[in-house]
Write a structure and sequence with these properties.
2 copies of one chain form a homodimer.
Chain A: E1 3-7, H1 16-29, E2 35-39, H2 45-48, H3 53-62, H4 66-69, E3 99-102, H5 111-114, H6 124-129, E4 138-142, H7 149-157, E5 160-165, H8 169-189, E6 194-200, H9 208-219, H10 237-241, H11 249-252, H12 257-273
Parallel strand pairs in A: 1-4, 1-5, 2-3, 2-4, 5-6
Helix pairs in contact in A: 1-12
The complex binds adenosine-5'-triphosphate (2 copies) and magnesium ion (MG) (2 copies).
One adenosine-5'-triphosphate sits at the interface of chains B and A.
């Protein structure tokens, strides 16, 4: 039965998607895991980091996406929403067997109010995932930058979460806010979830401000109980280029500093998952 | 009667808040405008870029915030929510007279479902702003990275919007998605809004990838009708440091490349606003 892990941060642009896509790739490639990546963000960033837009459009036209799984109203397909199993793209990257994807869809943009009256709106994915969870070792959930219904579905289905974070003030403000809101959700939705820790991303280690911010957080009283990964992901333009080729960093440039960092992060991640 | 402008992008971390805070400052300081900055993001990034956390806590304790304006349920204050006028912090920066702020509040995190049943939930701010709109020349709305109820309130109240954007693939994917969703909102909520244009942010001009991405967008058929600002905001660590001091870049380091860029952007912005 798979371990389910969410990439979580209300703060935008901190590398949730980049972490999800590259962790998923190295888990399958270097660690032989059967991996399912689930794209919970209506902006389809994770999906389009692994498949060209034309391929995504073709798939969404004929098959299901997260819009079907979450029963979004905006989706144009007729009839019953597709079953979760029919939304899975198996081996989305031919070069990386063992990595499957459930792609997202623009129709998730207003999902919160689509589902406002639906009983159990936060547990839809958890229930539907039960059918396939035995087929995987790790399921990664790429969350949008908020704690709304899509993210709540990811968290409710998750055993653990990982927090990517840029080492600057506005990005780190969110850590306290996040812990506070997560405590509220765990209580109200009555679920357990473990924090795997914080991974610093887009790090420019030569900048004193970045070095000081990481040091300040690692030693802060407030965050004593939080695990900070040893591996930090450097700012590396190759990581921003790769999605344009619909490739993870390993296939775009396996020698890039970003590739080395994600390879190392994945080792640490596997050890933390236990 | 003020011109109301929203900083808009569903993509996270592209510089909406940094633009809002620094445009607001230069409009007041260099152009003598009476400016109101309204923080629509439950993460309070804009608010905490202009006032220390302790000052914000004191204010939120005794006075109103966007949680009162948007009638959030989570807020702990008893009795009637505060009137909008009582939520305004006048001259939030002593060094920059003419810049007022309506601060945000964590209680906005679940505002969409708080307001799900409230008639006219998208027009609350527009109605309440009417009382004070004559006191300002420009009202800037800092939006969260989504198009949900808080952002819809900002857009419904706005004459125009500005799109900050990082020049990389995942950030630019959002431009088409944004235009599509905005068309839908304009039709369903029956309001008009002008696009002031796109401003490239966090630009590292020496990177070929950034230069190519900006060129590709400026010349793309899809975006022929979109105005791209001449000024681009460079990646400048000073811009990330400034919020830690609760200062706009002008007060943190007026000689920084980020300061020069925002000063220039503000000139262009004033010209575009007409
Ligand atoms: N280490 C890095 N070096 C260079 N660019 C990066 C790095 N990590 C992420 N990026 C780029 O920065 C942008 C933001 O990253 P990403 O989309 O992964 O963040 P996110 O947290 O998923 O954002 P959102 O909140 O919008 O979902 C993307 O364009 C991505 O390609
Ligand atoms: N030009 C720049 N140079 C360096 N750092 C920047 C620049 N612009 C923004 N930043 C920093 O990058 C991070 C993201 O910027 P910002 O918070 O303004 O984006 P945003 O679009 O408002 O994010 P969100 O989607 O979370 O609201 C912040 O920590 C900010 O201080
Ligand atoms: Mg993302
Ligand atoms: Mg912001």
């Amino acid at each position: 039965k798979a371990k389910v892990v969410s990439l979580l941060n209300m703060k935008g642009g901190v590398g949730k998607t980049t972490c999800a896509v590259n962790l998923a790739t190295y888990l399958a490639r270097d660690h032989g895991k059967r991996v399912l990546l689930v794209d919970f963000d209506s902006q389809t960033n994770a999906s389009l980091s692994l498949m060209p837009e034309t391929a995504w459009e073709k798939w969404a036209d004929k098959h299901g996406t997260m819009a079907d799984v979450l029963e979004a109203r905006g989706k144009k397909r007729q009839g019953e929403p597709a079953a979760l199993a029919d939304c899975i793209i198996h081996n989305v990257l031919p070069e990386v067997p063992g990595l499957d994807l459930i792609p997202s869809h623009l129709a998730l943009t207003f999902i919160d109010l689509d589902l406002a009256a639906r009983p159990g709106r936060e547990r839809i994915v958890s229930r539907k995932l039960a059918k396939v969870i035995g087929n995987y070792d790790v399921i990664l959930c790429d969350c949008p930058p908020n704690l709304m219904t899509a993210t709540q579905n990811a968290l409710y289905a998750s055993d653990a979460y990982l927090i990517p974070m840029q080492p600057d003030y506005l990005s780190t403000l969110g850590l306290n806010l996040l812990q506070d809101r997560l405590t509220y959700l765990k209580r109200e939705l009555e679920f357990k979830i473990t924090c795997l820790g914080v991974v610093f991303t887009r790090v420019r280690g030569w900048l004193r401000y970045h070095a000081e911010t990481m040091e300040r957080l690692r030693t802060a009283k407030d965050f004593k109980r939080i695990h900070f990964f040893e591996t930090v992901i450097p700012e590396n333009i190759k990581l921003a280029e790769a999605p344009m080729e619909a490739k993870p960093i390993e296939l775009h440039d396996s020698t890039a500093s970003g590739a080395e960092a994600y390879r190392a992060l994945t080792k640490e991640f596997v050890a933390r998952l236990g």
